[in-house]
Amino acid sequence: MLAADHPVATPLAPHDGVEWRVSAGLTDYDAALQAMTERAAMVGAGTAEELVWLLEHPPLYTAGTSADPAELIDRRFPVHTAGRGGRYTYHGPGQRVGYLMLDLTRRGRDVRCFVHQLEAWLIATLGDLGIHAYAVDGRVGIWTADGGTEAKIGAIGVRVRRWVTMHGFSINLSPDLSHFGGIVPCGLPEFPVTSAAALGRPVTPADFDAALHARFPEFCDRLAASGRCGVEHAQDAL
């Protein structure tokens, strides 16, 4: 279960045995990490349902397992060690964060395929909201050129522990983009970040959640049909 101090909005309908939960307000990062870790362990033990958890954090930076201290330019916000793969990422108000606690023993023990299908799910969702997004080989995340310049609109960072996924994604709906200036986002200094609002496509969290939820059955079906990519050993990725 999730910690009692996370106010929960009306949940979205479950699908394929996966609970959907939306937290209201801003959720403390350390409390979220603890709740996610506990829930993932319960999923792995078969004592809790899989979970998609949607929320927002107060302004902060997270450091993944590949974070380079030189890429922390200005420690203007708290910095948290995330335990996920990847480098530095910003979270804050106006950004939708999705934490996924899914059992890959049930859905295919293939981390790379999971990440590819996660990218496809987010890209399809943004497309439904009027934003043309895409993935780029060698650059994990979600990209768009709708503003005339290629920019990152979403980040992906996962960890897989005993074949249960943790962490997930963040999509920039309307965050303060200047807050990304304290880090080199995901270690890619040559690319800017953008948001739905900056592209002139304002999207509310509720609208994003509904669009994401509507595409979830397709994500589950594609994950089940994606086959193996030959990386069963990749327990921590991206």
List the topology elements.
Layout: E1 18-26, H1 29-45, E2 50-56, E3 60-63, E4 79-81, E5 88-91, E6 95-101, H2 104-107, H3 111-128, E7 133-136, E8 139-144, E9 151-161, E10 164-172, H4 205-225, E11 236-237
Parallel strand pairs: 1-2, 3-4
Antiparallel strand pairs: 2-6, 3-5, 6-10, 7-8, 8-9, 9-10, 9-11
Give an overview of the whole structure:
- The chain is of the alpha+beta class and 238 residues long.
- The chain contains 4 helices and 11 strands.
- It has helices at residues 29-45, 104-107, 111-128, 205-225, and strands at 18-26, 50-56, 60-63, 79-81, 88-91, 95-101, 133-136, 139-144, 151-161, 164-172, 236-237.
- A hairpin with a 6-residue loop joins strand 8 (139-144) and strand 9.
- The model is unreliable at 228-238 (pLDDT under 50).
Give a quick set of tags describing it.
8-stranded mixed sheet, disordered C terminus, globular, 238 residues, alpha+beta
Task: Provide a short characterization of the protein structure.
With 238 residues, the chain is an alpha+beta fold.
